[in-house]
Amino acid sequence: MMEWGSWSAFWSMGGNGLFVWGSYAVTFLCVAVELVLVIRRRRDTVRRLLRLRRAAPTGTGARRTTEEIFE
Amino acid sequence: MTTDIKDRSGQGKGLFRFSAPPVFYPLAGRLAPWFAGIAGVLTVIGLYIGFFVAPTDFQQGEVYRVIFIHVPAAWMSMFIYLIMAFWAAVGLVMNTRLSFMMTQALAPTGAIFCFLALWTGALWGKPTWGTYWVWDARLTSQLLLLFLYLGFIALTSAIEDSRRADRAGAIIALVGAINVPIIYFSVQWWNTLHQGASVSLTQAPSMATTMLWGMLVMALAAWAYTIAVALWRVRSIILERERHTDWVKAELDVQESRA
Amino acid sequence: MKPRSKRLLLLGSAGALLIGAVALVLTAFQQNLVFFHTPSEVAEGKAPQERAFRIGGLVEEGSIMREDDGYTVRFAITDTAHVIPVTYRGSLPAMFQEGKGAVVQGILGEDGLFRATELLAKHDENYMPVEAQFALDQAHKAQQTVQY
């Protein structure tokens, strides 16, 4: 087990705390941004498609049937 | 050309069922939360090992702990690009649209891991080597990988026609994949500042066991995270590209009733 | 932004990135990605004569000396076959030690002294606890004693 002795030793990382925590902070930031973007992309896609459908409700019928999906 | 993967009723045979977007879409929706949960749990375990079990390094002190995110990010950036190339090849050969959608779903995550490998590497290099960056073979080829990822994303977003975008992206994925073994073997083929591999398939690891385990658990966490995000992202891509089909219209009905 | 302008911007970025990537590959391979030469290569005259280049190797044990001005450092870099003397002024990386790897950039003088303008520490791929290294050192010492 790793014995840190004190919390300040943990944050300091032997004097290189900025480099270590700077790495992990940016990592979690990137993960958070990616998750937000993925969730937003879905929400925006659904909204936009619903809006398009309302604008042209009758449509021209499905261009593809389920069988044609394999093409 | 594709009749051999369909059975008599027109449905895909065996696993090829899942190459149909209407079949894959709900499956991806059911699997994604599981992989997200696994990623979360593994991250907690991996970081615990990395910061509270793994000891101080005799050579680098505490700053080596960047390894628990740097190496998994670097591994994933290479692995994801190879998977992208695989799906691009499958798409070109089997003419399955979903394969190309998968390639595009993976790219942003790969790009982010590639950036993180470079960023964490730079922050690790300054206190150890004495510099944030050098143009040695390892770092240069990793930067090249980031350009390839960004080029892929920009190009596939720019081309309106999805079939042309798929094929243009496939070229970048397949040709760029050559860079991945270059990155991996760069520390053997050329004199580099970046050190050689601590973990390889052919040699015993040159890391203490607890350090190794922390790294491997974080790598698995990154892998599970990638799958979760790619599955979730491909669902949006599928809805967009298959929007004229009956099943998507039905799915939109469901979404609208929930809104 | 208009869809066409957006497409143009994306296409332009893609083009710029790909051109950058190709340029990177070409320039990198032009210099043969020789990040550093070994002391043996330098001794054999294979290193560039008039321009700056890098030497990579181990810092020879007992060779680090600080000059009287308190700022300049002299040491020797070796690959166990050949030794090159180096002089350097500047900050020392924390991991710069005797017996460990280093990479210096500079010019080789006619007197055979390498005047370095940049010094980087190079570490290997071994990671182990402090206690393990201590145990290894002890075992190494014990082995040496037995040989004599």
UniProtKB/TrEMBL annotation, chain B:
<dbReference type="InterPro" id="IPR045062">
    <property type="entry name" value="Cyt_c_biogenesis_CcsA/CcmC"/>
</dbReference>
<feature type="transmembrane region" description="Helical">
    <location>
        <begin position="73"/>
        <end position="93"/>
    </location>
</feature>
<feature type="transmembrane region" description="Helical">
    <location>
        <begin position="139"/>
        <end position="159"/>
    </location>
</feature>
<feature type="transmembrane region" description="Helical">
    <location>
        <begin position="105"/>
        <end position="124"/>
    </location>
</feature>
<protein>
    <recommendedName>
        <fullName>Heme exporter protein C</fullName>
    </recommendedName>
</protein>
<feature type="transmembrane region" description="Helical">
    <location>
        <begin position="210"/>
        <end position="234"/>
    </location>
</feature>
<keyword id="KW-0472">Membrane</keyword>
<dbReference type="GO" id="GO:0017004">
    <property type="term" value="P:cytochrome complex assembly"/>
</dbReference>
<keyword id="KW-1003">Cell membrane</keyword>
<keyword id="KW-0813">Transport</keyword>
<keyword id="KW-1133">Transmembrane helix</keyword>
<comment type="function">
    <text>Required for the export of heme to the periplasm for the biogenesis of c-type cytochromes.</text>
</comment>
<keyword id="KW-0997">Cell inner membrane</keyword>
<dbReference type="GO" id="GO:0005886">
    <property type="term" value="C:plasma membrane"/>
</dbReference>
<feature type="domain" description="Cytochrome c assembly protein">
    <location>
        <begin position="32"/>
        <end position="194"/>
    </location>
</feature>
<comment type="similarity">
    <text>Belongs to the CcmC/CycZ/HelC family.</text>
</comment>
<dbReference type="GO" id="GO:0020037">
    <property type="term" value="F:heme binding"/>
</dbReference>
<keyword id="KW-0812">Transmembrane</keyword>
<dbReference type="InterPro" id="IPR003557">
    <property type="entry name" value="Cyt_c_biogenesis_CcmC"/>
</dbReference>
<feature type="transmembrane region" description="Helical">
    <location>
        <begin position="171"/>
        <end position="190"/>
    </location>
</feature>
<dbReference type="InterPro" id="IPR002541">
    <property type="entry name" value="Cyt_c_assembly"/>
</dbReference>
<feature type="transmembrane region" description="Helical">
    <location>
        <begin position="31"/>
        <end position="53"/>
    </location>
</feature>
UniProtKB/TrEMBL annotation, chain C:
<comment type="similarity">
    <text>Belongs to the CcmE/CycJ family.</text>
</comment>
<feature type="topological domain" description="Extracellular">
    <location>
        <begin position="29"/>
        <end position="148"/>
    </location>
</feature>
<keyword id="KW-0201">Cytochrome c-type biogenesis</keyword>
<keyword id="KW-0472">Membrane</keyword>
<dbReference type="GO" id="GO:0005886">
    <property type="term" value="C:plasma membrane"/>
</dbReference>
<dbReference type="GO" id="GO:0046872">
    <property type="term" value="F:metal ion binding"/>
</dbReference>
<dbReference type="GO" id="GO:0020037">
    <property type="term" value="F:heme binding"/>
</dbReference>
<comment type="function">
    <text>Heme chaperone required for the biogenesis of c-type cytochromes. Transiently binds heme delivered by CcmC and transfers the heme to apo-cytochromes in a process facilitated by CcmF and CcmH.</text>
</comment>
<keyword id="KW-0408">Iron</keyword>
<keyword id="KW-1133">Transmembrane helix</keyword>
<dbReference type="InterPro" id="IPR004329">
    <property type="entry name" value="CcmE"/>
</dbReference>
<dbReference type="GO" id="GO:0017003">
    <property type="term" value="P:protein-heme linkage"/>
</dbReference>
<dbReference type="GO" id="GO:0017004">
    <property type="term" value="P:cytochrome complex assembly"/>
</dbReference>
<keyword id="KW-1003">Cell membrane</keyword>
<keyword id="KW-0479">Metal-binding</keyword>
<keyword id="KW-0812">Transmembrane</keyword>
<protein>
    <recommendedName>
        <fullName>Cytochrome c-type biogenesis protein CcmE</fullName>
    </recommendedName>
</protein>
<dbReference type="InterPro" id="IPR036127">
    <property type="entry name" value="CcmE-like_sf"/>
</dbReference>
<feature type="binding site" description="axial binding residue">
    <location>
        <position position="127"/>
    </location>
    <ligand>
        <name>heme</name>
    </ligand>
</feature>
<keyword id="KW-0349">Heme</keyword>
<dbReference type="Pfam" id="PF03100">
    <property type="entry name" value="CcmE"/>
</dbReference>
<feature type="topological domain" description="Cytoplasmic">
    <location>
        <begin position="1"/>
        <end position="7"/>
    </location>
</feature>
